[in-house]
Amino acid sequence: MNNNEAIELKRLARKSFGLIEGLFVTKPKTALVAIIDEQIIGGFIYKLEICNGKKIGIASFLFTDPAFQGQVIGKQICDKGIQHLWEFGCEYLVTLVRDDNVASWRVFEKNGFVLTNLQKVVSFIGLFGAIKLFIKSSYGHFAIGYNFYFASSEEQSASSYRKEGPIVQIMLYVLLNILFFLPFVIITQNIFSVLVSSAFVFLGIVFAGYIGTLFSKRKWSFRLTGGGAFLYFIINIFPSLFFPVIGN
Predict the structure, then answer these.
(1) Which of 12, 28, 91, 131 allows an S-S link to 45, with CB 3.0 to 4.6 Å?
(2) List of domains in the chain
(3) How far is Cα 97 from Cα 63, in angstroms, rounded to an integer?
(4) What is the value of pTM for the model shown?
């Protein structure tokens, strides 16, 4: 990306992501752009960070002009962007992908990324490094509905930070929601509402999802979508509100 292309790339990114997600797109400093007939039709916006002495590449935004979607251009941009970051000498790469954006996270998975969590990231770059990384990526506070993906330059390490299976994910999901119920319980002393909310979370999301999958050709699985913890906490400290953590 040339400096004079940054504003146009920002405009295109906001157009691609829509009103709400587009608000988080700022004028990029570093990016790769895809151009057809002198027109920018896609981009790969990234950042470079040093966390606990490790060079980290953050894939911030991957997008294609809606008029050019369905032509595998997004995959080509992603492939080139990831290759670009490895060539920079990054030891690890990270990205956030909305859980229902299957096309995007499959492209990242094909490039060696795996779905992961805070515990596993800490094992690679330390606690303070992981906290810095999560703050920089907005995962911990704003990214509701997003998952955190991680890649290592050491291919043999990939299996060591793969996310747990569906049963463990359900247990973590229920536990996390109970923790978010606690402010509501303490403030209102209303145990009944908590029990009803807990039943809604488990039966309405986990069990209903399982039943729904029985009528499809897909194999059932479940995973916690852990992004946006700070917003969950803020919402759930209000006495009349409860917002369950997302799980798919």
Answers:
(1) 28
(2) 3-161 (3.40.630.30), 166-247 (no CATH)
(3) 12
(4) 0.79
